[in-house]
Design brief:
Distance between the termini: 27 Å
Organism: Methanobacterium formicicum
Mean pLDDT: 80
Keywords: ATP-binding, Coiled coil, DNA damage, DNA repair, Hydrolase, Metal-binding, Nucleotide-binding, Zinc
CATH superfamily of the domain at 1-122 and 832-899: P-loop containing nucleotide triphosphate hydrolases
Largest sheet: 6 strands, antiparallel
Helix content: over 70%
Family: Belongs to the SMC family. RAD50 subfamily.
Cofactor: Zn(2+)
Pfam families: AAA_23, SbcC_Walker_B
């Protein structure tokens, strides 16, 4: 995948940051804590919803309620957008795909979008981070750390550490089931003594059963005696209850009679009070006839006062109406002129608003043009620099990219063909030298054997003369000398060919450093910038015409506003008078109201005269007289209420007298009944004691029985439990067997996850692939080494002109190159070999100055990965960058500094 853009809103310290990414090496530079690493985290969050914060809410900028991250990228030739939003309580995700010129919705929902991204990139979030994201210090660790530490680090990247963690965690599970197994074995061991205990408890059950039978016989005898005493006691109890109840009733009736006699006295007293109140009512009643007349007179006087105030108000309103109508007539023309000018100014201001943005747009276009011109200049300078360096590499002097590309397309295949021919010739000579060496070794063997024997051929075993033996040895030595001479000639030829191939390889390494793709991207960017500058110039010309129109409109507005100000006072007088007239109402209507008020005044005066004639002397202190009579009226009503209870009181007196007579008769009957009961309390107490003693004896027998029955029940339950345990023994034994089989299976699975199991297999499978990718990448750095090997612990061995070397034996620059190639090789394997993007977080951290510079020099030469994004605070890395983005932070907010 290639990232095209990233937009963060309220993400951590980024309030509103938008970044456009290009191919090549992009450097994101800034101070510690500026918010650089948050950009890499935003990429991981947008694609897979992965983040480093403890809670997802912590990703939202402090003080904000919502954050969002949108990423646009290409994969498999298609463009995609992923947008993720988050509030304090809810989240939203949507993925779009580019169809034509527009992005169309593809899928939505957090889990659905994450799954779609995983399917598209063929990796999940963890694999993406391990493959694409090179964490802080990983390059330095591959150089500096011990073999075991490097092995552990690579294991983490390959996911082997999760297998190790699973292996360790399974020990906890195994211990848990082992404890369960021990407990089961203990349970089974405890069953040994159960059978003997079962026999003893059976004998005890038999004894208890016999004891309960004996208790039952004795109980039956006691029950008969107890029932006889109980019947006698119940007869006496009943007579005692009747005696007690009758005595209590007698006392109650006496109290009731006393209460009735007291009530009779109270009622007769209340009746005497009512007679006195009736006399008071007769005295007050004649005075109350005058109250209504006085109240009507008081209301009429108040109404007259209000009508006089209304009359004064209406007269004033009529005078005000005449005044404001005169003001309207004097200022009407000013009002009409002001309204006309105001409409004209509003129309002009509307027209001005249509052109108002022209000046701002011109300034913005000039600012935009200035930035694009600077960018265009940089792009052209980079084109010239790259073309000049490329000409130096090939020793040419082309002044156009097209000419240089055409020459390179012809020169490169020729060079590759020459290298291939030289390599084949070198291999042929090496094979021939090897054959000559084998021939000489084969010839030396019979010579040694002939020197050891005298009369017999060591090959055919036939008899030979000493002369023949010497002749054979001479022939063999002659052939060896001829082979050695031929080998010497071939060696000279081989050295010449190898020197020639070194020159050709050196030329090829220089050609590989030429990046025509970047050159074309610069040219494309420059053409796009020039086109945008032309469009801006055209837009500025159109806007300048609008600015001229805008200036004319502003002059007209200024003149008309001056005219408007000169008549504003008359305009405001007109508006004030019109508003006052609207609130005062119609003149004719107010005149009619005045006539109605005058009529009301006359009518009230006539009515007041009539009432005063009736009231006469009471008019002198009208309020005091009304107050006195109202108080008398309240007293009158209160007395009427009390007197109204007279009939009810007479009725209650009669009823109370009847109750007194009935109660006295009931007391006489109760006294006769007590005498006829003939109750003896001492005899009753004696029978009760005999029954209680017999009942206590019976209760003791019941207790003995209950105790024995309880003991028998408990014994039966214990026997049942023993039987259940004996029956469950087989179940425990079966469970133990299954548990042992399960533990055996768990141990087998744990062995599979161990260092000698799947972990070893995964290392053995991945190591050759990583070794192959590391070798391919290391060769691109053009060091004089022929091979790179990794052992089982991922220790690196390289082979060169001086033979075999380890990391401690090579230079700092070569060591950094090996570490970078190894890390990128791991990335290639994890990404399935289709590596287009890699992100490095502070790659120079923990490196000394020399090794940091070596890494920077290597990154400058890198053209093997289409897109590399580096987050760093190291300004030296800017020399290796195709694109530089600076991040700064002010008042807690991170932002991209415009270049």
């Amino acid at each position: 995948m290639i990232i095209e853009s990233l937009h963060m809103t309220n993400f951590k310290s980024h309030r509103d940051t938008r970044i456009e990414f290009d191919t090549g090496i992009s450097i994101i530079i800034g101070g510690n804590g500026a918010g650089k690493s948050s950009i890499l985290e935003a990429v991981s969050f947008a694609l897979f919803k992965q983040y480093t914060s403890k809670k997802i809410e912590h990703l939202i900028t402090t003080g904000q309620k919502r954050m969002s991250v949108e990423i646009q990228f290409t994969a498999h030739g298609r463009s995609y957008r992923v947008l993720r939003e988050r509030t304090k309580t809810a989240s939203k995700a949507i993925m779009k795909i580019k169809e034509g010129d527009r992005f169309q919705p593809l899928i939505s929902g957090d889990k659905q979008v994450t799954q779609e991204v995983q399917n598209l990139l063929e990796m999940d979030g963890d694999l993406f981070l391990n493959a694409v994201y090179v964490r802080q210090g990983e390059i330095a660790d591959l150089v500096e750390k011990t073999a075991s530490e490097k092995k552990q680090m690579i294991g983490r990247l390959l996911g082997i550490d999760s297998l190790e963690k699973a292996w360790k965690n399974m020990k906890i599970i195994l211990d848990k089931y082992s404890e369960q197994k021990i407990r089961l074995e203990g349970k089974i061991e405890s069953f040994k003594d159960l059978k003997e205990g079962f026999k003893v408890k059976k004998e005890k059950e038999k004894e208890l059963t016999q004891k309960i039978k004996q208790i039952n016989l004795k109980r039956e005898e006691n029950i008969i005696e107890s029932n006889l005493l109980r019947d006698k006691k119940e007869i006496l109890d009943k007579r005692n209850v009747e005696f007690e109840n009758t005595t209590t009733l007698q006392e109650s009736k006496k109290d009731f009679l006393h209460q009735l006699e007291k009530t009779q006295n109270d009622l007769e007293k209340q009746l005497n009070d009512i007679t006195v109140k009736e006399e008071e009512i007769d005295r007050i009643k004649p005075q109350l006839k005058k109250l209504d007349v006085l109240k009507s007179l008081d209301d009429a006087l108040k109404d007259l006062k209000h009508l006089k105030k209304d009359k004064e108000s209406l007269n004033k309103t009529l005078n005000d109406i005449k005044h404001f109508e005169k003001v309207l007539d004097e200022n009407e023309q000013y009002y009409n002129d002001y309204s006309l000018l105001d409409d004209e100014i509003n129309n002009l201001q509307y027209a001005r608003d249509q052109f108002e943005g022209s000046r701002v747009l011109i300034d913005q276009y000039h600012e935009r043009k200035s930035k694009i011109e600077i960018k265009l200049k940089k792009s052209l300078e980079k084109v010239r620099d790259v073309l000049e360096k490329s000409n130096q590499v090939l020793g040419t002097s082309f002044d156009s990219v097209e000419s240089f590309e055409k020459h390179l397309s012809q020169f490169k295949p020729q060079l590759e063909a020459q290298i291939s021919e030289a390599s084949e010739a070198i291999q042929d000579i090496k094979r021939e030298l090897s054959n000559l060496q084998v021939k000489n070794e084969n010839l030396e063997k019979p010579i040694k054997e002939l020197e050891l024997v005298k009369d017999q051929c060591p090959i055919c075993k036939s008899d030979i003369t000493p002369q023949k033996r010497e002749e054979l040895i001479g022939d063999y030595n002659l052939e060896i000398d001829n082979n050695q001479s031929l080998a010497a000639d071939l060696g000279v030829k081989l050295k010449a060919l190898e020197n020639e191939k070194k020159v050709l390889d050196f030329q090829q390494s220089k050609i590989q450093s030429i990046n025509l793709g970047i050159l074309k991207e610069y040219l494309k960017s420059a053409d796009h910038d020039q086109e945008e500058i032309n469009n801006i110039d055209s837009s500025i010309q159109e806007l300048q015409k609008k600015v001229v129109v805008l200036e004319n409109i502003e002059r007209d507005i200024k003149g008309k506003k001056s005219d408007l100000a000169s008549i504003k006072a008359n305009y405001e007088k007109y508006l004030g008078a019109r508003g006052s007239l609207e609130s005062l109402g119609d003149y004719e209507e107010q005149s009619l109201k005045l006539e109605d008020v005058n009529t009301g005044v006359r009518d009230l005066k006539n009515r007041i005269s009539a009432l005063m004639e009736i009231a006469r002397d009471s008019v002198e202190d009208l309020p005091g007289e009304i107050a006195y009579l109202e108080k008398q009226a309240q007293t009158y009503q209160h007395l009427l209420g009390e007197v109204s209870q007279k009939d009810s009181l007479n009725s209650r007196i009669q009823e109370n007298q009847n109750l007194i007579r009935e109660t006295r008769e009931e007391l006489d009957n109760i006294k006769n009944k007590i005498t006829s009961l003939n109750y003896n309390k001492e005899n009753h107490e004696r029978v009760k004691r005999e029954w209680e003693l017999k009942n206590a004896e019976l209760m003791e027998l019941n207790g003995q029985k209950q105790l024995s029955v309880g003991e028998l029940n408990q014994l039966s339950r214990s026997l049942q439990e023993i039987e259940d345990k004996l029956n469950s023994l087989k179940g425990y034994e079966k469970e133990l067997k299954n548990l042992k089989d399960f533990l055996k299976l768990l141990n087998l699975i744990r062995d599979l996850f161990s260092k000698d199991g799947v972990q070893k297999d995964l290392r053995n499978v991945s190591r050759p692939l990583i070794e192959e990718k590391t070798r391919e990448l290391f060769e691109k750095f053009n060091f004089e080494y022929s091979d790179v090997r990794l052992d089982e612990d991922y220790d690196v061995t390289i082979y060169g002109p001086s033979g075999e070397s380890n990391l401690d034996m090579i230079s700092g620059g070569e060591k950094i190159a090996v570490a970078l190639a190894l890390r990128l090789g791991i990335t290639q394997v994890l990404s399935g070999g289709s590596l287009e993007l890699i992100m490095l977080d502070e790659p120079t951290i923990h490196l000394d100055a020399y090794r940091r510079q070596e890494l920077i020099d290597l990154l400058k030469k890198m053209s093997i990965i289409p897109q590399m994004i580096i987050v760093t605070h190291d300004a030296d890395l800017e020399d290796a960058a195709d694109n530089i983005m600076k991040i700064e932070k002010e008042e807690g907010i991170s932002f991209l500094v415009e270049s």
